Each structure stands twice: as C-alpha cells, then as structure tokens.
Predict the structure.
Amino acid sequence: WFLVGPEEARLAGIVRRLPGCGSERLERDLLAGVLPTILETTRPRAVVHAHPDGSDGTGLVLSEFRRRNMPADYIAIGTDGTAVREAVQRAMREGTTAARGTIADPAVEMPTELGRARPRLVLCLGNALGRYTRLGAVRMLRAVRATMAPGESLLLGVDLRNDVQALEMAFNDTTGVIGEYHKRVLAAASRELNATFDVERFDFRVVYDVEGRRLEMCLVARDAHDVDVPGLGTLALRRGELIRTAASATFSRGSIAGMLTGVGFDLRGWVPDAADSYAIAVAAPAV
C-alpha cells in the first residue's frame, strides 16, 4: 500500500488512458445507461466504492445523485491511499452528506462500520475484481456481501476480453509508459525500504495465462544479482527471474454469475458493450 505515491498515481492515470489498457469511456457509457434505473428503484442513501483507483466512475455516479437531489454518504475503500484520498475529495466537491476513506484491501478486511445510512449502492468498477486471483475475487465478493442487506445493489465493471494477441499488444505499449509505471514499484520499494533494487537491471514483460484468463505484468531480471532489503535479508535473483508487479483477469458472464451466486448474490442485470469486451453486472443480495 505504501508503494503508491504521487508519481506512481500520475503514471497509473496515463496507463489507464492508453488505447486498449483502460475501459473508462466504455464503462461510463454503460453506467449512464443503468444508473437511472438503479437509483430510481433502490433509492440508495450511501455509496461504498471498493478500489476507486480503477475507475473514473465515481464522478458520474455522484453527479447523478446530485442531479436527482438525492443526498448520500460516500465511503471509499482501497489499497491505493492517493486514489482513496482523491475519491473522498471529489465526493466532498459533489456535495455528499458525508465522505470518508479507509486504506484497506476489501478482500481481506472490509470495514465493519460503514455508517448507518441505508440502503447502500456498492461500486466495484474499472475491472477492480480482476486484480485478484479467482479465489481472491470470490473472497472479496463474499466480504462485500456480508456488509449488504436486501434491497441494496452492487455494480461490477468487468473486462470480458479474451483475445490473447490483442491484450498482449495493448499492454506491451510502444511508448514505454506501462513499463516505466511497473518499474516504479521497485523504485518505490527502494525508497521506502532502503532496498537496493536497480530498475535498469529489469525488463518489463506481459504474460497471459490462457487457462486462467489472467494477464500478468512482470519485471524480468536481465542478469543474476543480489538485492539487499534491510530487515528482510538479501534477495538472490537469477537471470530471467520474474517479479510480478500486477495482474488483471478477464471474465465471462458465466464466471461472474457463478461467483456471485456462490457468495449469496443474484445477478439482476448484465449490460455489455456492442463488442462484448466490457460489461456492467448488476447484483443484489439473494433473498
């Protein structure tokens, strides 16, 4: 969590806007179509946003609340402290009745105290679910379900792409920005832990796990060398050894429906884009 500083956050924003890497425009268009019905039927009084760093959907959602003169609390929960803080600040500018943030992993420790305002609308946008393994995604959905009551809604933004070549080309961008962003992980580790990572001794590589529908971003050691990490010891890296810095899984309607059903949700709506590359899933606690 400490690895995300202002420079990392700036680069992350650039990466999300690169062609093929982010789906913010698609997601916003899809959200604009489903939000009116959700707000009209459930009349939420609180918005809980898991991992706000993955999407710009917060502004659209809160603007719709304001347009309809529906006061609501806002709670942001995520591991990126900068994104959580910025999401809370945006919510305050949008005129929410109360706004606060918690730096935590929703799959590990979903805060038990989310305020008294009910019903809630829970957001997990920007394919945030895809940063987890299948087990981790189920764990997060289960944790979210435990905080929800009948009549509340969950909106999931999920990546549906499964074209291996297109995915690898999108993340192996020619600008080098994505590689620079991931190398910042090592630079931040050296800064925060007084470690001796030399980013120039690593190359950026994208690996796609076809069976798991999972894209993994890695840094590859160019040569064998040692890295000192005070308090932890020495890492003896071999030539070609991988350090995974991020992952992004893609989904299908069937896989999302299966996970939701398994933890006590009903899939109430499925809104894909025309190319079937991205979708908004609308879920509610099963009754």
Observations:
- The chain has eight helices and twelve strands.
- Residues 223 and 239 are 4 Å apart (CA to CA).
